[in-house]
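Hello Y.,

Per our agreement to keep a running log of every chain we model this quarter, I'm adding this entry. I've kept the format consistent with earlier entries: sequence first, then predicted structure.
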Amino acid sequence: MSLASVMAFAIAACGGSDPLAPFQPEVSNVAENFALQATGVANVTTTKTYTWANSGTRASINHSTTTQSGSTLLVIKDAAGTTVYSKALSPSLNEVTSPAGVAGNWTVQVTLTNYTGTLNFRAQRFQAVVQ
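Predicted structure for the entry above:
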């Protein structure tokens, strides 16, 4: 068996073309609540895109990501395709998307560039507290 064949088999065994697969990402994608977590990620460059149902016009974003090296970018678009959130993932941040968007199927996109660390973020339909 050639080296190229062995490498192709090894890549397929590790999750094929998804460079995040070896780190067993946990994705929870249900209406009103999206979360992604992956521990021990090492030197990954990829962009992951998910469709998320949000019946609201805003979302609360919770960051809990540890970056050892590389960079991240979280971009969230509403059902009309308008960017309502764009920020690097950070160790501790809670904020609401802005501007208000269109309810429906939103897009959650996370881009990793030479990233090493632990990914952890959540997006939830924002419900304003009425007093």
